[in-house]
Design goal:
Blueprint: E1 5-8, H1 12-23, E2 28-31, E3 43-46, H2 49-53, E4 64-73, E5 76-90, H3 91-105, E6 108-110, E7 114-118, E8 127-131, E9 134-138, E10 142-145, H4 152-157, E11 163-173, E12 182-186, E13 196-200, E14 205-211, H5 218-228, E15 235-243, E16 251-254, E17 257-261, H6 277-293, H7 297-300, H8 302-319, H9 323-331, H10 335-343, H11 350-353, H12 356-359, H13 363-375
Helix pairs in contact: 1-3, 1-6
The structure holds flavin-adenine dinucleotide.
Length: about 375
């Protein structure tokens, strides 16, 4: 079987790249190891960047909208109004929709088909797939690896393994005193160098979760937090998220096959929030456009990469913060800073982030202190 492009992994990045390529006349085969019948549900909070990368997204996928973010550290708190709301989606509904779009575009989707590696013909390697009937070999000069954090290609060909972090969130009933249009964020560095969140869904439901460091008992941290907040977990959603770091490889060549990495496997994840859906879709689009036009993938990805690098820089600063620093930071969020933060979403921060010290000179000493901690 010969294809113009082979895509590995039928999640948001792989499906979107495959759809764009097929819509532009390419013969595309997508191989996914699961059966895709009932993808796992997971509540996603996504910035309006979603509509920039996929303007024709099915509006019915938007379950709920979030217009405010409440940030807290100890008793210090503030609110940021979002001029364009964040949207709440269910991963399962998004994937089922993307599958239909890809099929309509003409993508050959093969489920229960696991990519195993390449045959050992160095110049012209075949792409080995195992399905229910056994092993087969397909051929293509271009392969998109969109197979997530545990990518076989990445771990085989790039010993520089991706950085990853564990995530856990619990579904809860939203307390009646909490606003259903407000996301809540709590910083508590004793529990996590990241944060806890509560993201409301429709019908008075919500998810409460955290990102933690590897090796800690994330379930105990979440259960303690839920108990403190007087909340009760109905079910849990867990997983591992990739982390961007500057210099992560995004393409390679194996024999005469050009390999593009897109989505989590390419570290296309904002490391401040571990949101990877929008950036992964941008990565998928850039890879597809590079294939269609012959332009460089790195060039197509430049603006996303810069955005990801900014999040990496901010994350490095946040890593160094104490609870007192967080309190100071929250106190410094003056009305002009709030205005700036409210008018640009987390997928479009690069152009305005550097204006913050002008609006709030109080950020300068804190920033310098954190920079010193970073580099000394
Ligand atoms: C609990 C949790 C909550 C999250 N919440 C958010 C959120 O609110 N907002 C947000 O933006 N992001 C969120 N994320 C991150 C988001 O889920 C990822 O960034 C996104 O799913 C990455 O998509 P992807 O297409 O790169 O790969 P993945 O979703 O990781 O999918 C990879 C696909 O490749 C397939 N595959 C793997 N190996 C093979 C193989 N050898 N052969 C064939 N197929 C293979 C897998 O089965 C899978 O279908 C969350 C992540 C977790 C874990």
């Amino acid at each position: 079987m010969d294809f113009d492009v082979v895509v590995i992994g039928a999640s948001s990045a792989g499906l979107f790249a495959a759809e764009i390529l097929a819509n532009n006349g390419k013969k595309v085969a997508l191989f996914e190891k699961s059966d895709l019948v009932d993808p796992e549900s997971r509540l996603y909070i996504i910035t309006p960047g979603l509509f920039r990368v996929m303007p024709d997204i099915n509006p019915a996928l938007v379950r709920h909208k979030i217009s405010k973010i409440h940030i807290q550290s100890g008793n210090e708190k503030t609110k940021i109004n979002l001029s364009s709301p964040d949207v709440i989606l269910d991963r399962k509904e998004l994937l089922l929709d993307l599958i239909e779009r890809a099929k309509k575009a003409g993508v050959h989707i093969h489920t229960e088909s696991e990519f195993l590696g390449f045959n050992n013909n160095k110049a012209n390697p075949g792409i080995k797939i195992r399905n229910k009937d056994g092993e087969l070999e397909v051929r293509s000069k271009i392969l998109i690896s969109a197979d997530g954090v545990n990518s076989r290609i990445r771990s085989e060909y790039f010993p520089d393994k991706l950085l990853t972090v564990p995530l856990l969130q619990a579904e809860i009933y939203l307390p009646s005193s909490w606003d259903e249009n407000t996301t809540r964020i709590w910083f508590n560095v004793d529990s996590t160098p990241y944060f806890f969140w509560a993201i409301p869904d429709k019908n008075q439901k919500a998810v409460v979760g955290l990102i933690a460091e590897k090796g800690v008992d994330i379930r105990r941290l979440l259960d303690d937090f839920l108990a403190d907040q007087n909340l009760h977990a109905n079910t849990y959603q867990s997983g591992v998220a990739a982390m961007h770091s500057p210099g992560t490889e995004i393409e390679t060549r194996i024999g005469d096959i050009q390999v593009f990495f897109a989505g989590d496997v390419a570290g296309q994840v904002k490391v401040t929030t571990v949101g990877g859906t929008v950036t992964g879709l941008f990565g998928a689009k850039a890879a597809a456009e590079a294939i269609l036009t012959g332009a460089s993938y790195r060039e197509r990805l430049k603006s996303v990469q810069r955005e990801l690098d900014l999040h990496y820089f901010i994350r490095n600063m946040l890593e160094k913060m104490s609870d007192d620093d967080y309190k100071k930071l929250i106190r410094s969020i003056s009305p002009p800073v709030q205005n700036l933060l409210s008018s640009h979403d987390r997928d479009g921060m690069r152009s305005h982030f550097w204006k913050l010290p002008l609006l709030q000179p109080g950020f300068i000493p804190l920033g310098l202190k954190l920079l010193l901690k970073t580099f000394v």
